Amino acid sequence: MIAIPTIEKAVSDEEVFSAFRLETPELSPVRQALESGDNARAKKELVQYFQDRTNVRYLFDYRQEPLQKIDMDRTPYFFQASLGFGGSVKDFTLFAGKKMMQNIYVRPGRERAEVDLGKHYENLPHFSFLNDQGKTHRTLHDIFVRGQFFEYLTVLYHETGDREVLDKIEEVLTMFFEQYAIEIENTAPNANNFVFTQDRDVMSVGWLTFSYISLLYTRVPYELPYELAFELIRRIWFLGVQFRRFDTDTYRGFNHHMWERGLVPFMLGSLFPEIPAFAEMKSRGAKIVCRHVKEDYNEYGGYNEHSISYWSGASLGEMICRGIYLALVNKESLLDHDAMTRIENTFHILSEICPPGAYYPSLGDNGGAMVNPVLQLGVDACGSECCKELLNLRKGLYSTDPASLSLDYCNDKTGFVCTRNSFSETGTYILMSAKTSCGNSGHNHMDLLSLFLTFHGQEFIGEPHARQLYHNIRMGSPMRGYLYNMGSHNTVLAYERPVQPDEMYAKWYGVYRPDSPVNGFSSSEDGCFASAFHDAYTNCRHQRSLLFHRRKGLLVRDTIERATRLPNPHIQRWNLFPDVTFSRPDEGSVLLEKNGVRILAVWSGNPDIRVYRNTTLCPEFIAEEEKLSTIIDACFRVAPDAKPDVNTVSQDVCFLDVTDMVLKKEAVEEIRKEMARIQDLSALDSALCQFPDTNTLC
């Protein structure tokens, strides 16, 4: 094992220089300067070496003169400012850079949360893993110490050429080197945190390392004083060599391990062949990445954590595809054929379940990832034809649906049932969570058979508050448990309760992973049928069946078997997006409206329908009640006069497109009668023929 320093500020010049293979011809000016005792010139020559070297390619390269504007929007995942982004990364970065000039830090993401660092940086974020866990949220500190604000200022400098920006970069770098220098407290090969007192987990240290490396591929370090540029190289070496501590670590199946023990070592080894300690990590890192891909992604391309955002944005965008791209441009070997096939398959799934809008549904942790950048990843990393075709359609270059994709997708091994009437931005789109063998649960939700409904390109039903869960709710909060659990999803609460109480999910990531297998699926030109079930309750079964008519709407049938074991009713729950308005045509229907699109929801039978807001989320989670989503609960049970041996009950709801229609007074009751005629949803052709015809009723 090599000697690994523990105190960042104590690293000597000699340690840095000795880390390089100075006998290589390209580094001879550094060696000669050292041999002559000219330490200052040696530093200058090392900085010059990184300015000039061409033997290694990075994710981007803006070192050349004159200054070039940095293109961030074609491949936003190459930049850390893309974390949680919700639009142009370039626009956000320039905005955040201007704020940083005023010592105001803007946390990346759609919320653009601003933090005043203080005139003299007296308000810097801090977090103690030992003292603050469970009391405050660690996200601000965790993200800040990744150093992506260096991108803000760098992009601003490349955009403007303003020397005041360069001066600010010098100031901020100096501040950060002083205030956030690491003293390693945990040197174990299985360490998750390097430092506890000033929390520095291994993952964030990896991100900071690449924030520093990214600077090397801009003009910034070569226009700063050479002493500061050398300090940057010193930190890259100090942080990077910490990952040699994991040479003897055992394999662990979670995404942090893939990044910390696999991708970071592989990329460091690929990017710094002149540093033997880094180069020696490359092979082992590649093997670990390859193993993770084969264990985290099944043969169909399904991701085991069942979180669309973490799957597409984090695991693929921020992690795996960076490694794939670096390996590709540097002609390195990372994934074998089997692993690469799984990644290709995963991009095919992400194309198949692609929604009409800009964001994927918020299924699982962290809200919805942006669609187009994910598709671009598929093109750049895998040469995916379906991603390319779909991206061209979404950009208006094609006018017809991609021939490589189907309107209907169903595979419980990947976790999704999806159906639609087109891939256009004004299409109707339905996604259901239906999964088996989900695997690791780190970012998985208790979303059994939960639905996301989009009509005419407008999101009506989904998980409107999912994003805040990941970033804003402190560990241990009751709201955290609620947002992970069934009550915040669009499913059925048998006997008015979730499988497990909310408190089970308040203090960690992920949930219980019961299977929800598909047990019926068929498709035709006019529509689609799908059904799935789960036995998570153990004392009853929930079966959900979907009948989608591509022109008219969607019928959902929820059946509870062994439905009379407790006296409580069952709740069919629907979470509306906050910008959806509603009215009540009668006691058994709700008319939903959003941006001119009108959807009539009609329930069969005589359920007790309650429309309300969950005000317990205010003010800690959502500051104002008006910003809360509306919830629709349809409570149903076996009829009081049912025979004693009847223990199965069903509840139907039909979502009908009534845009540009005028409801007749008697229309809702007629629709309810037509719904009752549809007995067997699986008999697709006949069921579609019996689907309520709003043209005659409205």
UniProtKB/TrEMBL annotation:
Designated name of the protein: Uncharacterized protein
Residues that span the membrane, as ranges: none
Entries under Gene3D superfamilies matching the protein: 2.70.98.70, Chondroitin AC/alginate lyase (1.50.10.100)
Alphabetized Pfam families for the sequence: Hepar_II_III_C, Hepar_II_III_N
Chief subcellular location: periplasm
Domain Heparin-sulfate lyase N-terminal: 16-64
Listed InterPro entries: Chondroitin_lyas, Hepar_II_III_C, Hepar_II_III_N
A single cellular component GO annotation: periplasmic space
Keyword Glycosyltransferase part of the UniProt annotation: no
Lineage start: Bacteria, Bacillati, Bacillota, Clostridia, Lachnospirales
Keywords: Lyase, Periplasm, Signal
Domain Heparinase II/III-like C-terminal: 413-611
GO terms for MF: lyase activity
UniProt entry tagged with the keyword Lyase: yes
Protein location: Periplasm
Organism of origin: Hungatella hathewayi
